[in-house]
Amino acid sequence: MKSLLKTPLYLIELMTSAKSFKDNPVIGSMTLNRCGLHVIRILLSHFIMRIRMLMLSGSISAEDRRQYFQQGYIVKENYLSASEFASLEKESRAFDGEIREARQGDTLTHRAALSPDVLSRYPMMQSVLFSKTFQKLARFTSGHLRDPLYYLEEIKNQYSEGGNDPQKMFHHDTFHPSMKCWFFIDDVEENSGAFTFIPQSHKLDWKRIKWEYKMSLVAQDANNHMHARGSTRYTDEDLVELGLPAPYAFTVKKNTLVLVNVFGIHRRGDSIGKSTRLALWGDSRTNPFLPFPGFGGEFVNKLQYYFLSLFRKRADESAAKRGVRSPWTVISNDKK
Ligand SMILES: [Fe+2]
Protein backbone atom coordinates (compact mmCIF):
# COMPACT_ATOMS: atom_id res chain seq x y z
CA MET A 1 0.00 0.00 0.00
CA LYS A 2 2.77 2.41 1.01
CA SER A 3 4.62 1.54 -2.19
CA LEU A 4 1.45 2.20 -4.24
CA LEU A 5 1.05 5.68 -2.71
CA LYS A 6 4.64 6.45 -3.59
CA THR A 7 4.20 5.40 -7.24
CA PRO A 8 3.88 9.01 -8.57
CA LEU A 9 7.16 9.86 -6.82
CA TYR A 10 8.86 6.77 -8.25
CA LEU A 11 7.67 7.77 -11.75
CA ILE A 12 8.90 11.36 -11.37
CA GLU A 13 12.28 10.02 -10.27
CA LEU A 14 12.67 8.38 -13.68
CA MET A 15 13.44 11.83 -15.07
CA THR A 16 16.09 12.62 -12.46
CA SER A 17 19.50 11.22 -11.50
CA ALA A 18 17.79 8.68 -9.17
CA LYS A 19 19.56 5.37 -9.71
CA SER A 20 18.64 2.89 -7.00
CA PHE A 21 17.29 -0.40 -8.34
CA LYS A 22 16.52 -1.38 -4.76
CA ASP A 23 14.77 1.72 -3.39
CA ASN A 24 12.72 2.58 -6.46
CA PRO A 25 10.66 -0.43 -7.64
CA VAL A 26 10.04 1.23 -11.01
CA ILE A 27 13.78 1.72 -11.69
CA GLY A 28 14.40 -1.82 -10.39
CA SER A 29 11.47 -3.47 -12.18
CA MET A 30 12.61 -6.56 -14.07
CA THR A 31 9.62 -6.31 -16.43
CA LEU A 32 10.26 -2.65 -17.29
CA ASN A 33 13.98 -3.23 -17.64
CA ARG A 34 13.28 -6.20 -19.91
CA CYS A 35 11.41 -3.66 -22.06
CA GLY A 36 14.57 -1.50 -21.98
CA LEU A 37 13.80 1.11 -19.27
CA HIS A 38 17.34 1.23 -17.85
CA VAL A 39 18.95 1.30 -21.30
CA ILE A 40 16.57 4.04 -22.49
CA ARG A 41 17.47 6.16 -19.42
CA ILE A 42 21.18 5.65 -20.18
CA LEU A 43 20.90 6.51 -23.87
CA LEU A 44 18.71 9.56 -23.34
CA SER A 45 20.81 10.96 -20.47
CA HIS A 46 24.07 10.47 -22.40
CA PHE A 47 22.60 12.18 -25.47
CA ILE A 48 21.36 15.20 -23.45
CA MET A 49 24.57 15.47 -21.42
CA ARG A 50 26.68 15.42 -24.59
CA ILE A 51 24.65 18.32 -26.00
CA ARG A 52 25.00 20.22 -22.72
CA MET A 53 28.76 19.67 -22.64
CA LEU A 54 29.03 20.85 -26.25
CA MET A 55 27.01 23.96 -25.37
CA LEU A 56 29.65 24.78 -22.71
CA SER A 57 32.68 23.77 -24.76
CA GLY A 58 33.15 27.03 -26.68
CA SER A 59 36.01 28.31 -24.54
CA ILE A 60 37.64 24.90 -24.01
CA SER A 61 40.70 23.99 -26.09
CA ALA A 62 40.18 21.39 -28.81
CA GLU A 63 42.74 19.17 -27.06
CA ASP A 64 40.88 19.24 -23.69
CA ARG A 65 37.55 18.60 -25.40
CA ARG A 66 38.99 15.68 -27.38
CA GLN A 67 40.69 14.20 -24.31
CA TYR A 68 37.50 14.35 -22.20
CA PHE A 69 35.28 12.89 -24.89
CA GLN A 70 37.80 10.24 -26.04
CA GLN A 71 39.45 9.15 -22.77
CA GLY A 72 36.98 10.30 -20.10
CA TYR A 73 39.37 12.60 -18.23
CA ILE A 74 41.54 15.73 -18.45
CA VAL A 75 44.90 16.08 -16.67
CA LYS A 76 46.68 19.42 -16.16
CA GLU A 77 50.15 19.08 -14.67
CA ASN A 78 51.90 22.08 -13.05
CA TYR A 79 48.54 23.80 -13.02
CA LEU A 80 49.60 26.73 -10.79
CA SER A 81 52.85 28.68 -10.72
CA ALA A 82 55.28 27.56 -7.96
CA SER A 83 54.46 30.59 -5.79
CA GLU A 84 50.69 30.23 -6.22
CA PHE A 85 50.90 26.54 -5.36
CA ALA A 86 53.04 27.24 -2.27
CA SER A 87 50.44 29.73 -1.07
CA LEU A 88 47.55 27.32 -1.67
CA GLU A 89 49.41 24.45 0.02
CA LYS A 90 50.08 26.63 3.07
CA GLU A 91 46.39 27.56 3.35
CA SER A 92 45.26 23.95 2.94
CA ARG A 93 47.58 22.50 5.55
CA ALA A 94 46.61 25.21 8.05
CA PHE A 95 42.85 24.65 7.50
CA ASP A 96 40.95 24.94 10.78
CA GLY A 97 37.26 24.85 9.74
CA GLU A 98 34.73 22.05 10.21
CA ILE A 99 35.99 18.65 9.07
CA ARG A 100 33.79 15.56 8.71
CA GLU A 101 34.95 11.98 8.61
CA ALA A 102 33.52 8.94 6.78
CA ARG A 103 34.71 5.39 7.41
CA GLN A 104 34.57 2.94 4.53
CA GLY A 105 36.30 -0.32 5.28
CA ASP A 106 39.82 0.50 6.43
CA THR A 107 39.80 3.95 4.77
CA LEU A 108 39.01 7.25 6.45
CA THR A 109 37.87 10.14 4.28
CA HIS A 110 38.15 13.62 5.78
CA ARG A 111 36.26 16.38 4.04
CA ALA A 112 35.71 20.07 4.73
CA ALA A 113 32.98 21.70 2.63
CA LEU A 114 34.33 24.86 0.96
CA SER A 115 31.24 27.04 1.10
CA PRO A 116 31.53 30.74 0.17
CA ASP A 117 31.64 31.56 3.92
CA VAL A 118 34.53 29.15 4.51
CA LEU A 119 36.40 30.26 1.38
CA SER A 120 36.23 33.91 2.45
CA ARG A 121 38.94 32.97 5.00
CA TYR A 122 41.06 31.13 2.38
CA PRO A 123 41.66 33.61 -0.48
CA MET A 124 44.07 31.44 -2.46
CA MET A 125 41.72 28.44 -2.53
CA GLN A 126 38.92 30.76 -3.55
CA SER A 127 40.90 32.39 -6.35
CA VAL A 128 41.97 28.99 -7.75
CA LEU A 129 38.52 27.34 -7.66
CA PHE A 130 36.73 30.40 -9.04
CA SER A 131 39.31 31.46 -11.60
CA LYS A 132 37.95 31.73 -15.13
CA THR A 133 40.08 28.80 -16.34
CA PHE A 134 38.97 26.45 -13.56
CA GLN A 135 35.32 27.45 -13.89
CA LYS A 136 35.29 26.89 -17.65
CA LEU A 137 36.78 23.41 -17.27
CA ALA A 138 34.39 22.53 -14.42
CA ARG A 139 31.34 23.77 -16.31
CA PHE A 140 32.24 21.95 -19.52
CA THR A 141 32.98 18.63 -17.79
CA SER A 142 29.83 18.94 -15.62
CA GLY A 143 27.64 20.00 -18.56
CA HIS A 144 26.15 22.53 -16.14
CA LEU A 145 26.61 26.17 -15.12
CA ARG A 146 26.38 25.41 -11.41
CA ASP A 147 29.77 25.21 -9.73
CA PRO A 148 30.63 21.77 -8.33
CA LEU A 149 30.46 21.26 -4.57
CA TYR A 150 34.07 21.76 -3.47
CA TYR A 151 35.80 20.26 -0.46
CA LEU A 152 39.25 20.01 1.01
CA GLU A 153 39.67 16.24 1.10
CA GLU A 154 42.18 13.89 2.67
CA ILE A 155 42.03 10.16 1.94
CA LYS A 156 43.63 8.14 4.72
CA ASN A 157 44.26 4.58 3.57
CA GLN A 158 44.42 1.89 6.24
CA TYR A 159 43.76 4.34 9.07
CA SER A 160 40.70 2.42 10.28
CA GLU A 161 40.05 -1.07 11.65
CA GLY A 162 37.37 -1.94 9.06
CA GLY A 163 37.57 -4.56 6.29
CA ASN A 164 37.67 -3.93 2.55
CA ASP A 165 37.05 -0.38 1.38
CA PRO A 166 34.06 -0.63 -1.05
CA GLN A 167 35.56 2.20 -3.13
CA LYS A 168 38.43 -0.12 -4.01
CA MET A 169 36.21 -2.29 -6.21
CA PHE A 170 35.76 -1.13 -9.82
CA HIS A 171 32.45 0.73 -10.19
CA HIS A 172 30.71 3.64 -11.82
CA ASP A 173 29.03 6.35 -9.74
CA THR A 174 26.08 7.20 -11.98
CA PHE A 175 24.31 5.79 -15.06
CA HIS A 176 24.87 9.16 -16.77
CA PRO A 177 27.94 11.38 -17.28
CA SER A 178 28.85 13.24 -14.09
CA MET A 179 32.08 14.87 -13.00
CA LYS A 180 34.54 14.63 -10.12
CA CYS A 181 37.78 16.59 -9.96
CA TRP A 182 40.91 16.65 -7.84
CA PHE A 183 43.54 19.31 -7.51
CA PHE A 184 46.31 17.34 -5.80
CA ILE A 185 48.23 19.00 -2.97
CA ASP A 186 50.24 15.83 -2.25
CA ASP A 187 52.19 13.69 -4.70
CA VAL A 188 50.28 10.47 -5.41
CA GLU A 189 52.26 7.22 -5.58
CA GLU A 190 50.94 4.06 -7.22
CA ASN A 191 50.72 2.11 -3.96
CA SER A 192 49.15 4.88 -1.92
CA GLY A 193 45.55 4.56 -3.05
CA ALA A 194 45.91 6.38 -6.38
CA PHE A 195 42.61 7.07 -8.15
CA THR A 196 42.44 4.43 -10.90
CA PHE A 197 40.34 4.77 -14.05
CA ILE A 198 39.69 2.60 -17.08
CA PRO A 199 40.22 4.88 -20.09
CA GLN A 200 37.29 5.04 -22.54
CA SER A 201 34.99 3.22 -20.10
CA HIS A 202 32.71 6.28 -20.11
CA LYS A 203 31.72 5.47 -23.71
CA LEU A 204 28.58 3.64 -24.71
CA ASP A 205 29.34 0.93 -27.20
CA TRP A 206 27.20 -2.09 -28.05
CA LYS A 207 29.04 -4.34 -25.55
CA ARG A 208 28.44 -1.88 -22.72
CA ILE A 209 24.77 -1.38 -23.61
CA LYS A 210 24.24 -5.16 -23.65
CA TRP A 211 26.06 -5.48 -20.32
CA GLU A 212 23.96 -2.70 -18.74
CA TYR A 213 20.78 -4.37 -20.03
CA LYS A 214 21.67 -7.72 -18.48
CA MET A 215 22.77 -6.07 -15.23
CA SER A 216 19.52 -4.09 -14.93
CA LEU A 217 17.43 -7.29 -14.88
CA VAL A 218 19.02 -8.56 -11.67
CA ALA A 219 20.51 -5.51 -9.91
CA GLN A 220 17.51 -5.06 -7.60
CA ASP A 221 18.37 -8.29 -5.75
CA ALA A 222 22.16 -7.92 -5.70
CA ASN A 223 23.91 -8.79 -2.43
CA ASN A 224 26.20 -5.77 -2.76
CA HIS A 225 23.99 -2.94 -1.48
CA MET A 226 25.94 -0.25 -3.38
CA HIS A 227 25.42 -2.17 -6.63
CA ALA A 228 21.71 -2.60 -5.85
CA ARG A 229 21.51 1.15 -5.25
CA GLY A 230 22.94 1.98 -8.68
CA SER A 231 26.64 2.47 -7.86
CA THR A 232 27.25 -0.40 -10.21
CA ARG A 233 30.12 -2.75 -9.31
CA TYR A 234 32.21 -4.62 -11.90
CA THR A 235 33.92 -7.97 -11.33
CA ASP A 236 37.10 -9.01 -13.17
CA GLU A 237 34.92 -11.20 -15.43
CA ASP A 238 32.74 -8.17 -16.29
CA LEU A 239 35.81 -6.18 -17.32
CA VAL A 240 37.03 -9.04 -19.54
CA GLU A 241 33.57 -9.23 -21.14
CA LEU A 242 33.64 -5.48 -21.84
CA GLY A 243 37.09 -5.72 -23.47
CA LEU A 244 38.26 -2.34 -22.20
CA PRO A 245 41.83 -0.97 -22.05
CA ALA A 246 43.99 -1.58 -18.96
CA PRO A 247 43.24 0.59 -15.90
CA TYR A 248 45.26 3.77 -15.51
CA ALA A 249 46.42 4.88 -12.04
CA PHE A 250 46.67 8.64 -11.61
CA THR A 251 50.15 8.69 -10.09
CA VAL A 252 50.63 12.41 -10.32
CA LYS A 253 52.76 15.08 -8.76
CA LYS A 254 51.31 17.72 -6.48
CA ASN A 255 49.95 20.76 -8.36
CA THR A 256 48.08 18.54 -10.87
CA LEU A 257 44.43 19.00 -11.75
CA VAL A 258 42.40 15.95 -12.84
CA LEU A 259 38.78 16.07 -14.05
CA VAL A 260 36.99 12.74 -14.64
CA ASN A 261 33.66 11.51 -16.02
CA VAL A 262 32.61 9.07 -13.29
CA PHE A 263 30.17 7.17 -15.48
CA GLY A 264 33.56 5.74 -16.46
CA ILE A 265 34.66 2.69 -14.48
CA HIS A 266 37.06 3.52 -11.66
CA ARG A 267 38.19 2.69 -8.16
CA ARG A 268 40.38 3.92 -5.37
CA GLY A 269 43.74 2.18 -5.78
CA ASP A 270 45.32 -0.17 -3.25
CA SER A 271 47.68 1.03 -0.60
CA ILE A 272 50.68 -0.73 0.84
CA GLY A 273 50.51 0.27 4.49
CA LYS A 274 49.20 3.60 5.69
CA SER A 275 49.11 6.44 3.17
CA THR A 276 47.35 9.77 2.73
CA ARG A 277 46.60 12.16 -0.09
CA LEU A 278 45.35 15.72 0.26
CA ALA A 279 43.44 17.48 -2.53
CA LEU A 280 40.83 20.06 -3.33
CA TRP A 281 37.99 17.85 -4.50
CA GLY A 282 34.91 18.74 -6.52
CA ASP A 283 31.74 16.81 -7.22
CA SER A 284 29.11 17.74 -9.78
CA ARG A 285 26.03 15.57 -10.17
CA THR A 286 23.12 17.22 -11.94
CA ASN A 287 19.82 16.10 -13.44
CA PRO A 288 20.97 14.50 -16.72
CA PHE A 289 17.54 14.88 -18.34
CA LEU A 290 17.54 18.68 -18.09
CA PRO A 291 17.86 19.77 -21.74
CA PHE A 292 19.88 22.93 -20.99
CA PRO A 293 22.92 23.59 -18.76
CA GLY A 294 20.91 24.92 -15.79
CA PHE A 295 21.72 27.97 -13.72
CA GLY A 296 24.86 29.06 -11.93
CA GLY A 297 26.14 32.10 -10.07
CA GLU A 298 26.81 33.04 -6.48
CA PHE A 299 23.27 32.62 -5.18
CA VAL A 300 22.93 29.10 -6.58
CA ASN A 301 26.34 28.23 -5.17
CA LYS A 302 25.42 29.51 -1.69
CA LEU A 303 22.14 27.63 -1.83
CA GLN A 304 23.76 24.28 -2.58
CA TYR A 305 26.01 24.53 0.51
CA TYR A 306 23.00 25.55 2.61
CA PHE A 307 21.19 22.38 1.55
CA LEU A 308 24.31 20.28 2.04
CA SER A 309 24.66 21.59 5.59
CA LEU A 310 20.97 20.94 6.29
CA PHE A 311 21.27 17.40 4.92
CA ARG A 312 24.35 16.68 7.07
CA LYS A 313 22.67 18.06 10.22
CA ARG A 314 19.56 15.92 9.61
CA ALA A 315 21.79 12.86 9.18
CA ASP A 316 23.59 13.72 12.45
CA GLU A 317 20.28 14.01 14.32
CA SER A 318 18.91 10.81 12.85
CA ALA A 319 22.12 8.92 13.76
CA ALA A 320 22.06 10.36 17.28
CA LYS A 321 18.46 9.17 17.78
CA ARG A 322 19.42 5.67 16.66
CA GLY A 323 22.58 5.71 18.78
CA VAL A 324 24.86 5.15 15.80
CA ARG A 325 27.71 7.10 14.23
CA SER A 326 26.70 9.68 11.62
CA PRO A 327 27.95 8.67 8.13
CA TRP A 328 29.84 11.99 8.02
CA THR A 329 30.84 12.70 11.63
CA VAL A 330 32.28 16.05 12.65
CA ILE A 331 35.76 15.47 14.05
CA SER A 332 37.91 17.75 16.08
CA ASN A 333 40.71 19.47 14.19
CA ASP A 334 43.48 17.72 16.11
CA LYS A 335 42.28 14.36 14.68
CA LYS A 336 42.66 15.46 11.09
FE1 LIG B 1 33.35 6.33 -7.37
Structure report:
With 336 residues, the chain is of the alpha+beta class. The chain contains 13 helices and 11 strands. The strands form 2 sheets. Strands 1-8-5-10-4-3-2-11 form an 8-stranded antiparallel β-sheet. A 3-stranded antiparallel β-sheet has the order 7-6-9, with no helix packed on it. Helix 4 (37-55) runs antiparallel to helix 9 (132-142). The protein is globular, with a radius of gyration of 20 Å. The protein binds fe (ii) ion (FE2). Fe (ii) ion (FE2) binds at residues 171, 173, 262, 266. Fe (ii) ion binds at residues 171, 173, 262, 266.
- Helix/strand/pairing class, anyone? alpha+beta
Lateral strand order in the biggest sheet: 1-8-5-10-4-3-2-11
> Which bin fits the share of residues in helices?
25-40%
Summed up, the helix count is 13
SSE sequence, one letter per element: HHHHHEHEEHHHEEEHHHEEEEHE
Shape: globular
- Find the count of extended strands (DSSP E, 2+ residues): 11
The percent range for strand residues is 15-25%
- Computed over alpha carbons, the radius of gyration is 20 Å
Largest sheet properties: 8 strands, antiparallel
Kindly report how far apart the N and C termini lie: 47 Å
Spans of at least 5 consecutive residues with low confidence: none
Mean pLDDT across the residues is 95
